[in-house]
Amino acid sequence: MSSVYRSFGMTVPATGRAIAPADAIAMMKQGKAGNGALLAYGNGRSYGDTCQNTAGGVIDMRTMNRILAFDPGSGVMEAEAGVLLSDVIAHVAPYGFFPPVVPGTQFVTLGGAIANDVHGKNHHRRGTFGCHVLSFSLLRSDGRIHECSANENPHLFAATIGGMGLTGIVLSARFTLMKVPSPDVTENAARFRDLAEFFDLAEAADTANEYAVAWIDQLARGRASGRGLLMTGNHAGTGSRAATSAGPRLAVPFQPPVNVLNRPFLKLFNAAYRWKKGRASGPQDATCQSFFFPLDGVRNWNRLYGPKGLFQHQIVVPEEAARRAVPALLAAARAAGQGSFLTVLKRFGGQRSPGLLSFPRPGYTLTLDFPNRGARTRALLDRLDAITVEAGGAVNPYKDARMSADVFEASFPQWRELEALRDPAFLSDFWRRTALKLPVERHDRARAAE
To answer: Deepest of 65, 111, 251, 380, by most Cβ within 10 A of its Cβ?
Structure first.
């Protein structure tokens, strides 16, 4: 096991103490897990401190990585929590299946996908990953394994999906896969001149396509402000039924001493990206790797942001507020002189997650990546938080490294329900700096032991 467990954003302290799953399970079954001593750690792709427990330790779940069963007739898989989505994809693709929801990287664990209730480019059709989880086995520090589903231990089921690993250890889970003709995608890219045109196109794009996402040229100013590309896709009617899980083709072998993704680079990159994607006429074939996981082709790409790391900031605002709030968020970043390497805008649908604290909700979500420039960047992020909350939106806690307790409460007023069901042995740095700084009424934890 690694001696240091970092977050992908590299802006928060790493956890240095780790425990093997077998040892953690034995400790919990014997009732020897202390308060706040544990937190499950997947593959370290969280950007902030939801995967960190510096005051305690983390359980490295990656050795619990077996696929236990798969039924090609029903598309139901059972797997241990440490299995990677890349291995799931490789296993089911020959049978004509694909995960119904995938995030921007395939190198996340099943347990991480549940704990963060991940979403993808097709929320408008499939909702979050949690919408496709049938059941799971949850070990808590009371020493018991709780079988959880919508009908059995439903409160723990809801609290664990999107619950940031705070309810115990997910040992294994059953979930459904989606039948597809091919894991590859037929993609279309259409230029839009500004955000108003994007909003006019977005709903129709969602209706007509399985996948839809927009890239924004965040640095563009004046009449070009808000320009970008709307990329839509559907699984190809024919093509390979193999989806390899081979490692990245390129790598950033060492940590550059400075941020490589500076403003001049970003302006050149944005111009080239818009030209390359926008010049294509008609549908283009894309592998599932290039369409869903383009950054997975470069190992340790986060090192390009320099030794101080990066902040990823993702928000969602209601549909009726989006035409005002999204331009304000982009304008605030430009006014602060901060450039975002990847700026992504997409529409969330109305499908409700079974998760108690799930981030997606109807509206539009904007994601920005900023190199960490200290107080200057944090001030910008505070401003983006304020614009979001004022618009009735929410900031994504699963990617956060610095939001205030007040912003978290405004985004997730139901957080106390999760605190009532939190396993006392499990705690994260995120929960310590947000939820535990807010007033908490006394709760009866009895229902957590269902």
So the answer is: 111
